[in-house]
Design brief:
It is built from nine helices and five strands; from the N terminus they run ααααβαβαβαβαβα. The protein has about 210 residues and is an alpha/beta fold. Helix 6 packs parallel to helix 7.
Length: about 210
């Protein structure tokens, strides 16, 4: 009698999402053959939930946050080099074109000369403050329709109220997360992805983070 052939070695399979992503779709079951009836059953067995979700995860990862047309111009007005660098990196990575001003006077000159599509405007600035800068933006026909998101580290709610009263479109309190930045932008987009002034709703209201 011939002895039984040794069983084919099995390969341990990781269940982590990272390993599944790296191996997708190479980890799919091999096609069934006439010589391996067990493969028919394996091929028809429903995949674990984590594997079924992999295409969805990948699709979400490909979608840019707060997606707008490439080259959308954003003016960042803040005297904090750290905040400017952080915000600029977030936007540059998502195909925005960024312009920076560290004071209100420079920001106004830039905005009037070539109006941006969106302005992030700090309230506390050297010289003219953000509120006065916002008033001037709203009075000038070249910039009165440019969306403005005001930012501040001050916890007083009166700043948020006043910002809305004189024409801000949204408000973010420092420090803010990347997800909030793009959620605020998302709230100003139309169906085509272009940015517009807010027509309703309270600024600074809680937001739902944009999926990565």
């Amino acid at each position: 009698m011939f002895g039984k052939a040794p069983a084919a070695p099995t390969t341990a399979r990781s269940s982590s999402v990272a390993d599944l992503l790296d191996g997708w779709p190479d980890t799919a079951a091999a096609p069934a053959t006439d010589e391996s009836p067990a493969a028919d059953t394996a091929a028809t067995t429903e995949l674990p939930a984590v594997e079924r979700d992999i295409p969805r995860f990948r699709e979400r990862r490909r979608q840019p946050r707060g997606s707008v047309p490439d080259g959308t111009r954003v003016l960042i007005v803040d005297d904090s080099q750290t905040l400017v660098a952080m915000l600029r990196k977030m936007l540059d990575q998502n195909s925005y074109e960024t312009i920076v001003a560290t004071d209100a006077e420079t920001a106004l000159a830039s905005a009037f000369d070539d109006p941006p599509d969106l302005i992030f405007l700090d309230i506390v600035l050297p010289g003219m403050n953000g509120f006065e800068a916002l008033r001037r933006l709203r009075r000038d026909p070249r910039t009165k329709e440019v969306p403005v998101i005001m930012i501040s580290g001050n916890e007083q709610a009166v700043e948020q109220f006043y910002a809305q009263r004189i024409g801000a479109d949204d408000f973010m309190k420092k420090p803010f997360a990347r997800s909030e930045v793009f959620a605020r932008i998302e709230g100003l987009r139309d169906e085509a992805g272009f940015l517009h002034r807010r027509t309703s709703g309270k600024i600074g209201a809680p937001v739902t983070p944009v999926a990565e």
